[in-house]
Amino acid sequence: MSVSDAFDEWARSGKDQGMEERHWHTAKHALARLPAESGDTVLDLGCGSGYAGRALRETKDVGRVYGVDAAPEMAHNARAYTDDPRVAFAVGDFEHLPFDDDSIDHCWSMEAFYYAQNPHTVLDELRRVLRPGGTFYCAVNRWEEHVHSHEWEELVGVPMLLWSEQQYREAFREAGFAVAGQDRIPDTETEIPAESEFPTEDWETRAAMVERYREYGTLLTVGVVPE
Asked: Which end of the chain is more exposed for a tag (fewer CB within 10 A), N or C?
């Protein structure tokens, strides 16, 4: 199954709302760091339900948000969730973005970059469309050090990138970004049952669940286009 087919199915079944709720636990903290200002143009790469773009318009009054997703049904749902004329959604290929050179101020991506078939090409394309001084905020919940995420490719049923934290930094630099930061944002909101309730359907031990959410959480890598 392709990535677009898988997420079309999720969108039709309403899973996009569940994704939004789960991602928001850490996404809101990363989005708060995005140095977007009033009037800026922001690209939401792999926008899903479009929650990040809506939040940026509400909290930072950015001038324009473009959400791009490979799944037509996801983009369709995202359009239905807002009537803001400054938020637009399109079905697109991450490797061929429909934007001019130096036309985007900031790019945000949550739980999407690891679906790229050619991640280095995607970084090159982002480097092309971002203006000097622009940033790429790349948030992922699956990476090499996060041992509890390794089985997700089999569960989702589509190919998924599994880079280490160092590989993310190196790839950003190879594409011409300066790495401004990289850290893990813990999920402090997912409820973790008492020890007496384990094992559960998904977890053998409470310690593993604590590690998944409180220690690993979300990996955020920030790239900046040199001025």
From this structure: C
Query: What pLDDT is recorded for position 4?
Result: 86
| pTM of the predicted model as reported, rounded to 2 decimal places | 0.96
Cα separations (Å) of 8 from 11, 91, 150, 198?
Answer: 5, 11, 23, 34
**Start-to-end Cα distance in the chain:** 41
Alpha-helix residue ranges (DSSP H) falling in 65-212: 72-80, 119-129, 152-156, 165-174, 206-210
Return averaged pLDDT per consecutive 10 residues of the chain, 227 residues in all. Answer: 83 82 96 97 97 96 97 95 97 95 98 96 98 98 97 90 98 98 98 97 97 98 98
Indicate the DSSP class of residue 27.
Answer: H
Give the pLDDT confidence score for residue 82 in this predicted structure.
Answer: 97
Yes or no: say if 131 and 106 are a contact pair by the CB < 8 Å rule: no
What is the SS3 assignment for 181-226?
EEEEECCCCCCCCCHHHCCCCCCCCHHHHHHHHHHHCEEEEEEECC
Two structure tokens written together for 69: 């997703």
